[in-house]
Design a protein that fits this description.
Keywords: Hydrolase
GO molecular function, one term: trehalase activity
Strand content: 15-25%
Number of helices: 14
Protein name: Glycoside hydrolase family 15 protein
Largest sheet: 8 strands, antiparallel
Shape: elongated
Helix content: 25-40%
InterPro entries: 6-hairpin_glycosidase_sf, 6hp_glycosidase-like_sf, GH15-like, Trehalase-like_N
Length: 583
């Protein structure tokens, strides 16, 4: 294992990080102005800043004086303002990845401002491609004070720091500003020769306009500011092909020293369906159309062999492997994902739910309807096969997988433009699937159980009724809701399922996706007070930047797992809009 660089920024609790993103890649920014994670040129490429998981590579802009940290996003965007109150005044750094992003070139914008009093700020740039394997080389300053260099296969250019000084494979600078002064730093990283530099003001103007165009204000949503922010996060995580990565990061542990570290820099079909349905509910047509476009392409290309996940460009997820890095504290490093070897039946049902949501809004084209036929045929052919399920466990005949396929079939059967004969066929297939699930996955108490051989309660089994597999008033629906609430709920947080005899919170964190699903389930049962309680409790389970991880450690009030988790933001957005719709 590699020895950590003693000069690298120390890791922070996950709740302290903010996200910068432009659709092609994302960067994690810590409270000391330390960008410690970014892959380039694309989400699934090697990191050029990898200090987050113990590698070399970071870009820090930090006040020299002692400070107290704060920060906030400009509304409807991923433009972040780091704000430091120092012993000598107030310093801000406006931070963004230029938006909309370019496929081959990442542009990091940092505008340092002395808001109150004079400011002294230290800049430390140490890019290192290949997760730290390729240090900065060929460093050169031209007559205008612009620095250029190479790291791995990437071209590097820094403008705005003519007085920087080389320090081995890094650049260091001290920025001195009088009260009211500002300094723009523009860092470019590209796998192609760099174009002529653009003025910082022009880059900022286009970034502001780009965010204003893609993130409108969701009128009427509960927690309206957070709902809009969730939309911005999803937009930042979404590539031009419509695919939204599950998270910007890899290897952030779900539980310290438990080995549950995964690479989530890929597009899960199930997550994409959640995002599209949330976008449909919120009237976010660009996100909806992108989700439909991505899923449609995968169905038409791969048919019944559609994988559970792809890269953001639609290629196969690489095999899982480890790197020679220390990892984030409590975890270890990993790239690639074993999901590429799994069959997950429910992705076909979720795809139908997504396509039906688009059809109801008259946003489903001919290719989308062909994709719906493909998904329905896949369900007909494969619904009796064991699969890995929503939680990606051992292959089994999971109740959730089959029931969500029934929900998808019912939704597309009822969608505008579906012929009467085809609708009847799909409804009959849904009835058959529900009947077969009832025969081997209905617990003696009247609730759904996880699989024929696993009698436990599973929070995922709230979803089929929410999506229409069964009526809200069906006894199986209400019995399942009661059992999930009683067995897996703790103080309006929800856990996925019981792993063993340990207390729920000792096995893993509360699952925030499930908490927002419970809010929707209570709303479906017309218990608005409980719905709001679940929504508000889980909405608060984030850090200062309003980002959600997959899990929340209730005892320590800490985020666990990769950051930010797109499906949590999607369900927050859907719940925010849905709970407000009847108020």
């Amino acid at each position: 294992m590699s020895t950590p660089d003693a000069t690298a920024p120390a890791p922070h609790a996950l709740r302290d990080y903010a996200l910068l993103a432009d659709g092609h890649r994302g960067a994690l920014l810590g409270p000391r102005g330390d960008i410690v994670w970014m892959c380039a040129p694309a989400w699934h490429d090697d990191a050029v800043f990898a200090a987050l998981i113990g590698g070399t590579g970071w870009y820090a802009v930090t006040p020299a004086a002692p400070f107290v940290w704060g920060g906030y996003y400009e509304p409807g965007s991923l433009v972040w303002r780091s704000r430091w109150t120092t012993t000598g005044g107030i310093v801000e750094c406006r931070e963004a990845l230029a938006h909309p992003g370019e496929r081959h070139r990442a542009v990091l914008l940092r505008r340092i401002e002395a808001v109150h009093g004079d400011a002294r700020v230290e800049v430390h740039l140490r890019p290192a491609a290949g997760f730290g394997a390729h240090p900065l080389r060929e460093l050169h300053r031209d007559e205008r004070g612009t620095w250029t260099g190479r790291t791995g296969g990437l071209h590097v250019r820094l403008t705005g720091a003519p007085d920087a000084r080389p320090d081995g494979a890094a650049l260091r600078a001290t920025v001195l500003l009088e009260a009211g002064g500002r300094r723009d730093l523009v860092l470019e990283l590209s796998d192609r020769p760099l174009p002529k530099p653009e003025p910082a003001d022009a880059l900022w103007r286009s970034t502001e306009a780009g965010w204003a165009d893609c993130v409108p204000d969701p009128v009427g949503a509960m927690g309206q500011r957070d709902a809009r922010h969730a939309h911005a996060v999803l937009a930042g995580l979404t590539g031009p092909g419509g695919g939204t990565v599950a998270a910007a990061t890899t290897s952030l542990p779900e539980r310290a020293e438990q080995g549950r570290n995964y690479d989530y820099r890929y597009v899960w079909i199930r997550d994409q369906a959640y995002i599209g349905q949330a976008a449909a509910a919120a009237g976010a047509h660009e996100l909806l159309d992108g989700s439909v476009r991505f899923v449609t392409a995968r169905l038409l290309e791969d048919g019944a062999g559609m994988a559970p996940a792809y890269t953001v460009t639609g290629s196969a997820v690489p095999d899982q492997r480890t790197l020679d890095l220390p990892g984030y504290p409590g975890g270890f490093d990993v790239v690639g994902n074993h999901v590429n070897r799994q069959f997950q039946l429910d992705v076909f049902g979720e795809s139908l739910l997504l396509l039906a949501a688009a059809a109801r809004r008259d946003r489903l084209d001919v290719d989308g309807r062909l994709a719906a036929l493909t998904a329905a045929d896949a369900i007909a052919a494969r619904h009796r096969e064991p699969d890995a399920g929503i939680w990606e466990l051992d292959a089994d005949r999971w109740a959730h997988s089959r029931l969500i396929c029934a929900a998808g079939l019912r939704a597309i059967a009822a969608a505008p433009g579906t012929g009467r004969a085809r609708a009847a066929h799909w409804e009959a297939l849904a009835d058959l699937i529900v009947a077969e699930a009832c025969a081997d996955c209905l617990h003696p108490s009247g609730r759904w159980q996880r699989s024929p051989g696993r009698a436990g309660v599973d929070a995922a089994l709230l979803l089929p009724a929410l999506r229409g597999a069964l009526p809200a008033g069906d006894p199986r629906t209400t019995a399942t809701l009661r059992a999930v609430r009683r067995n897996l709920g703790r103080d309006h947080y929800l856990y996925r399922f019981r792993h063993d005899r340990r207390p729920l919170e000792d096995a893993e964190g509360a699952f925030l996706l499930c908490g927002f699903v419970m809010a929707l389930a209570e709303h479906q049962q017309h218990d608005e007070v409980e719905a709001v309680r679940w929504f508000e409790r889980n909405r608060a389970a984030c850090g200062p930047a309003g980002l959600y991880a997959e899990e929340f450690d209730v005892a320590q009030r800490q985020l666990r797992g990769n950051l930010p988790q797109s499906f949590v933001h999607a369900l927050l957005l859907e719940a925010a809009v849905t709970l407000a719709s009847d108020r």
